Amino acid sequence: MKIIKNPPRADWKAICKRPVLKAENLQQLVNQIFEEVKVGGDKAIAKYTQLFDKTSISTLAVSRAEIEKAERELPNELKEAIQLAASTITKFHKAQMPQKIEVETAPGVICWQEARPIDKVGIYIPGGTAPLFSTVLMLAIPAKIAKCNEIVLCTPPDKNGNINPAILYVANYVGVSKVYKVGGIQAIAGMTFGTEYIPAVYKIFGPGNQYVTAAKQRAAQLGVAIDMPAGPSELLVLADKTSNPAFVASDLLSQAEHGADSQVICVVKSENLISEIEEEVNGQLEQLPRKAIAEKAMENSKFVMLEEEQDCIDFINEYAPEHFIICCKNEEFYTKNIRNAGSVFIGNYTPESAGDYASGTNHTLPTNGYAKSFSGVNMDAFLKKVTFQKISKSGIQNIGSAIEIMAEAEGLQAHKNAVTLRLNSLKND
Amino acid sequence: MKIIKNPPRADWKAICKRPVLKAENLQQLVNQIFEEVKVGGDKAIAKYTQLFDKTSISTLAVSRAEIEKAERELPNELKEAIQLAASTITKFHKAQMPQKIEVETAPGVICWQEARPIDKVGIYIPGGTAPLFSTVLMLAIPAKIAKCNEIVLCTPPDKNGNINPAILYVANYVGVSKVYKVGGIQAIAGMTFGTEYIPAVYKIFGPGNQYVTAAKQRAAQLGVAIDMPAGPSELLVLADKTSNPAFVASDLLSQAEHGADSQVICVVKSENLISEIEEEVNGQLEQLPRKAIAEKAMENSKFVMLEEEQDCIDFINEYAPEHFIICCKNEEFYTKNIRNAGSVFIGNYTPESAGDYASGTNHTLPTNGYAKSFSGVNMDAFLKKVTFQKISKSGIQNIGSAIEIMAEAEGLQAHKNAVTLRLNSLKND
């Protein structure tokens, strides 16, 4: 890790910069697969599943028998862990359901706002080495609470045409309507256009590699909403002498093992903490099966020493971390003044991995500084808020003249006329 | 208007299709101006203001003297109308401010969600024939309520280098921090990169022509959030025999005068209503100063006759109108079952223009079917919801083992280790 002591504010922007990704230009490949799936449907999907996933499957839809097999196979202790996580996630997200808001904005003018579910949502879960069944929990549970009618899940099959049993178990446990064995660009294209098997959806959620990211961008151009812009995972820990260096090191490493392009930042207020944490990082790193990945990520990572509390929080707000761990005495100062962060973890017994799995908060969070303008996935992501207004005769008499004057001033005579006609009709009332 | 009677469901998708826009490829022009503004700052902006707005201005920032002049010049009755609108908009948006949500998801595991303002927001207001001061109300009022630190407004100057006084009056009245005389692509580029005068912002709001739309898309690629995808304005009216044909016609026309590419749909349950409404449309059209525009828009527009209530609401949800007016006896059925709409207007005395100006709801709404997945602008658009969690020693003892098991199953050993270290430290407690 690099050590940066008391950097002047002019340098902060450069320090906060995330490692630049060499984004290959995938546009042409994405456009081609989208065009083929649009025209050829499931046949085109089968072609690309054969090409990329090296398997040919007779049917895209996961069968009841496959789900039952997954349920039998999955160890009981994993099922119980999943059930505990599902319960905390459900509690926290249910509490977020927006209430109807109603205001009489002027006498006789009633306005209200009500949430409505997004009818059809798609969830993409990557395959590969780590079966991210926890992401199924994080996306499908709020979709169910929101009462989305159709919840579609796509995830790539392995070489034998199978899906990881933990993914199937979770999908079934939380009530996903349909699971399809399809991954990558062709999965996103399928949910964009719809095929014989896969329904077209209005919004696509979920993580993925650069192919999936490029495909989601294409889907967005074609009118399908997406959850948020993608980027490598990241963590910022603020530590002082009340923190436990071993715990801090374990949190830094748990972020670093996500990928070689992950980034961690450790903000400290005093110098001697740096060597203690570094020593722990080096020791723990040796034990990790994903040591090579974590080591590479640690090279991108930084200790930033800032002596003043106000400088610390200003720097953290400038960085806008996806995950922000506060391990310091004056934690209230930071919880009060943090403005830009995805999710915040407070105290020595709140590791970031708690939020990844089982505290109840969502782990789909804005990276790459997007915490300045985006929320993490929460109930709002599965809902639209629709406004309603109902104006009585006396209500339009109260605000009608203001509308006429403003419409006229904007040069919109027909807007004015819609009010004038109504006001005139009431003159004889 | 075209008349479509009892269309089968298979035809609905085609009927709901919006007129296809011939989108010129503006990418090259946008990229060039962005590059120049990034490097050249205000000098590049001045060059393009000269080129597109045919004026050279000495300073981009609107002065105190200009604002005072606008205040003196604006007619009192317009000021009072604006103040009434500001009061209803403020009331409705203040009521939407999200509250802190806190849940103990498991014993010792406290999770909460709090809203934080987006620190820096930019508002774009087009120039041209209609000075859209009402949009300043709709975007700046919620930004102020959200406590966004910096609210920047860009709007193009006229040939004499001036801004419409109503725009300046509203901006000052609602508390916009900074107003700049700059329009088009160069304005969006300025708010994306920041210049000597214009601050870089985290999110850009506001309507605009195809140049502004293309520029906002470029800004989004560069990491600046935008309010929503743009499209021509649209309205769907549901009318039965309890509706007033003259009122319905006036609403259809008030939408149609926005632009030749606007679209209106009138869903009716019985045939004889069609001719009554059409007659009113033709009569009122003659009186309109923007007749040519409205006439063109009406050519794209449709009467859709559907006899069954359920078919009506299903069709409307498939269309997903930006504005939806309900003028029928059974209005509760529609307010209850509408799932996809931007803003809903209920009854004979609730014209769509009320929502454009003064009912209190926001007029920045999803078009082109985006109401299936997007909300209109509301308080959420100016906020991020940040999650927090604090876990006690006993809390991590309660959920720690579930985290360990799940992290292990996902192959993320360092995630597990962050918990194991903490649990081990507590064994001797």
If you had to describe this structure to a student in words, what would you say it looks like?
Two copies of one chain form a homodimer. Chain A has 429 residues and is of the alpha/beta class. Chain A folds into three domains: 2-19 and 232-360, Nitrogenase molybdenum iron protein domain (Rossmann fold); 26-99 and 117-229, Nitrogenase molybdenum iron protein domain (Rossmann fold); 392-428, Single alpha-helices involved in coiled-coils or other helix-helix interfaces. The first copy, chain A, has 17 helices and 14 strands. In chain A, the strands form three sheets. Chain A has a six-stranded parallel β-sheet, with helices on both faces. In chain A, helix 6 runs parallel beside helix 7 (165-174) and helix 10 (245-256) packs across helix 11. In chain A, 53% of the residues are buried. The model of chain A has no long low-confidence stretch (mean pLDDT 95). The interface between A and B is large, with 128 and 129 residues.
